[in-house]
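Re: Re: ligand-bound prediction request (bumping)

Still looking for help on this. To restate: I need the protein modeled with EPS bound, output as structure tokens. Inputs repeated here so nobody has to scroll up.
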Amino acid sequence: MRYLTAGESHGPQLTTILEGVPSNLPLKAEDINEDLARRQKGYGRGRRMQIETDEVEILSGVRHASTLGSPITLVVENNDWKHWTKIMGIEEISEEEKEEVKRKITRPRPGHADLIGGMKYGHRDLRNVLERSSARETTVRVAAGAVAKKILSELGINVASHVLEIGGVRANPPQYKNLNELKDRTNESPVRCFDQSVEQEMMSAIDSAKENGDSIGGIVEVIIEGLPPGVGSYVQYDRKLDSKIAAAIVSINAFKGVEFGIGFEAARLPGSKVHDEILWNEEEGYTRGSNNLGGLEGGMTTGMPLVVRGVMKPIPTLYKPLQSVDIDTKEPFSASIERSDSCAVPAASVVAEAVVAWEVANAIVEQFGHDRMDLIKENIDRLKSYAGEF
Ligand code: EPS
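Reply:
Sorry for the wait, this slipped through. Here it is.
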């Protein structure tokens, strides 16, 4: 499977076309809208989220609530577009009109794509860069991920995400009975955190960042349960599932790092404390005594829960002035901006869930038969019973 996204933050709409989604997958707009709504929530978002009510329109590839196997087109309208029709219009405008059209940007934000994107594409109005580099694009990545999650759920595979850290406030490792409990509680939490004892502290950290005109980042975690062993491969670098997931995580706006299982902690421990001992019992077949490697060995799933974390830097759009240079005058300036999120970590956890789900679903679809959901299911069941007896 593959997908592309298109659309500007304040343009008319965001679009994604998903290619290679198997046929006969039950799919309704509600399945996608639920995740779009989850992405819009989260303490620390700015005023833009009050303007938008993200809802998908499915324009191709689905008939009578079931996929056809043909490309699926998903569109989400930007409600804010109506305020930007002149500024973001597609039609030609005269030089005088251009002067009238305010909001030309010549002052790049440190940490954003503005300066280098302008240099690279030859845009002296940096709006031409920021409109596409904006995290608004993650809306349709979540829509694509919702379709991937639907594939996984049909195969008995469960995907969750939660927030582990915001602005230096750390949650205790979540102790949950099952993944649905983790999902239910984090969906209720304003910061998408399982540990209620730190929720308030996280929100206070967001409040004080906002008061100071600053922004804060954090750490999110994605967990996938119910995977068969052997998804991905060790035989070639570009077939390793962990490499694809790592690329997907750092492709999310503002994400700077990724780790699996105990991650960077593995550097500080001896091998005897890192590797997960292999066990076997009649009922479950092969299992592990621990899951330090996050469900991946040799670029393949082990059958244990897949655990991956991503690090989000603070959003670079700050009310607090940071030193930069105006590209027209070359004068230094430190300006404030109009509108920003002070923290988007809770929303980013939903995005992380979507992009990881896509990579895992894609690897499964490629490996277990591309075309039809029923054949994919049969192939996975066959592999699972083989693995149990192996
Ligand atoms: C963003 C800036 C803000 C965010 C936006 C990402 O938008 P605006 O410039 O319209 O205030 O709200 O995020 C979204 C719109 C979204 O849907 O997540 C940026 O510059 O990256």
